[in-house]
Amino acid sequence: MALSVVVYEDNDLLRESIVSMISLNKQFQVGGSFNNVLKVEEQVKSIKPDIILMDIDMPGSTGIDAVAKIRKAGWQTPIMMLTVFDDNQHVFDAICAGASGYLLKKHLSAKLYDSMEELRTGGAPMSPSIARMVVSSMHKKATQVNPYGLTARETDVLTSLSKGNSYKLIASEFNISIDTVRTHIKNVYEKLQVHSQAEAVAKAIHEKLI
Amino acid sequence: MGELNEKTNAQKAISYYQQALAFPFRMEYSMEFVQTYNSLGELYHILGKYDSSQLMHQQALGIAQKFNYENEIAETYQGIALNFMLQSKPDSARAYLQQALATWIRLEDRLKQAGVYVNLGNVFLNKANYTEALNYFIKAEKIYEGPPKDSHGLSKALSNIGNIETILGNDDQALDYTQRAMELSKEIGNDLSVAYCHRLMGRILRKKTSFDKAMSAYREAVKIYQMRGDKRNESETYQSIGNIYYDLRQSKNALAEYDKSLQIARSIEDPLLMGYAFSGIGFTWYQLKEFNTAIAYFDSSMIKAKEVGNRYLIMDAFQVISNIHEERGHFHEALKFHKFYSDLKDSIVREENRQGAEEMEAKYQNVKKQTEIELLKKDQQLKNVSLQQNRTTQTAMVVAFVLLLIIGVLAFNRHRLIHRAKRLMEIERMRNEIARDLHDDMGSTLSSIHIISQLALKENQAEPSTKYFQRISENSAKMMESMSDMVWSISPDNDSLQKMLSKMKEFSAEILEPKNMSYRFQGEETLNGAVLDLASRKNVFLIFKESINNAAKYSEGSFVDIHFSQVATDLLLTISDNGKGFDHTRVQNGNGLKNMKARAMEINAQLNLESTLGQGTVLKLKLSIT
What we know:
Helix content of chain A is 54%, strand content 13%. Chain A is an alpha/beta fold. In chain A, strands 2-1-3-4-5 form a 5-stranded parallel sheet, with helices on both faces. Chain B is built from 23 helices and 5 strands.
């Protein structure tokens, strides 16, 4: 059965293009496409997609807010952020809010199918820019020795990645397979989110929102 | 304690005062400090240690001026003046006395004014200006007679008047004044004054040829001076005794007394005293007809007299030398010296007359202007007060204005700096925002064009329009790429070489890995946190990109070596592949190469591209960084 994909993108032309692309692949089907995230909770609830593609900048409410809402509602649907820049703080914020990965818009036509497949299997790639942001955010939280609870190897992989090294180079550097590198990165994603969500809950309690 | 001892033993007193100095110093009693220094100064000049005395007074003056103690400043001036007087520097003494007098007049302290008059009288006496001196002494006497009567001061004034009357030849009056002074001095137990009166009596009695009485009067004085350790007066008194022996033609005795005087004068380095001693000795040798010896002593006397500007001594010397030449029959020399003598005498007389006339005029003017002066004084006081106020206000205003100006300038500067920094940040932020927004929007659109063209290609690969879709696809991809590079290069976050290296590695992986080409980065560690400006960053990266693209597309090699090094302020980048290379002459005009050269030019970098067919390509870029 084809996987249901929901697309959130405010640029109409791009949204329609993505929809067309998805329709061409038998593995995927379009569950819905929207130019804003104002009713994201209801839409996810009714469509129950397998994958969500989410633009970051949208009028009214951002993709990051939408990710947070979806996760807060308890949906574990993989969410892929669509962005023009991968060195954007927004991408990092989205990951912390619960996004599973991201895809540069310039790579849409070449990598959309592969990326969605990777996302589904939990192996979302990470660019050096994002790795750098993770590393620097670890340094900023210097009060904690290991704020995200990363293992030594995960930290090594992340650090190497932040220097611009490819998965392939990292694999040869540490004498591991590329798949192992992917697993480490996947773990980093999860730990970032877990940590960030825990922090969000603690903050919410503190502010008496719950 | 110090006061008590001053009368008996100056030396002892000095040590007490020195101990006393430590006390006010500890207690920070500056006033006591001044007074103690002044007392020390007086004691030192009694001992003839004028330099020490001067030093003490200067210390006192410094402190007094610092705290603006007017009384103490005036007292110190008088102390300094007295010191100058004793060193036979009457003009310096007079200057200080005038300052002291001005202060006492302002403070309306009549007794202190009288004290200064006495001092001034002594100054003029020293300058042999007797009429002026007498005038001052009489002024002082009037004040001292009171009410309230000041016996101490009065005795001093009286004895001084007696002295001048003696000099002026009014012996009976002189004797009368001196007698009164002596009685008063004894009454109040002022040894110094008693001694002085004894000397004065001696002088008058000598003139009246009562030599025995005169001699015993002088001996009394010497006793007192010896007791007090007053070298100067002791020396002077020996001269007086010598003079009596001279009159009595007891030359040996006279010479002995003069010699005593000279020794003391030498020990306290008093040129006037020495001059008089030399003169006395000269007279005695003249009396003994020892002309050569006499002339030698008169020469010495003249030298000392000239030092202090005492014309009477010089006049005496000229007269005696003239007489000696006459007696030897050297009439020409005798006449010459007689001429010197009479010229000098005339000039002294002229000056005395002129001063007398001026004084008469001054006295007349004085009476006339007395009321005027009183009015002026009051007026001056008022003016002073308002001037003081004005000055204070003016100063305050100037200070306030300067402060305001400084604050203003600082505030303006700060504001300008903040404003400029804010504006720069604003511009930076706006530039980034515009670039990103533009790119976000255009990137999305270009992305969709790219997707659509790809879709079109997939859907219908046989159509003749395929090649157009192909070009649309390629160009839209290229545009996305270059826009992304542009945004990357203008972002200030990417200033560091490290960020550029990371980007280069990422790009290399993206381009070379799908082609199964390996690559190696070397020499990163030599780049010590160098920073590239916007243009260099952009152009170096684009040259790098072009080079990697060429390697991937055309070289057909399997390996790319990327080498960085920093030599002093030069950054060197070498990119070499093991591909097939190219022929310079044929590829010269390729767009890619042209672009690289243009970019290198733009940042003043040296670009060197070497390639031989079959032996790969080496690109070298040399760039000056700071």
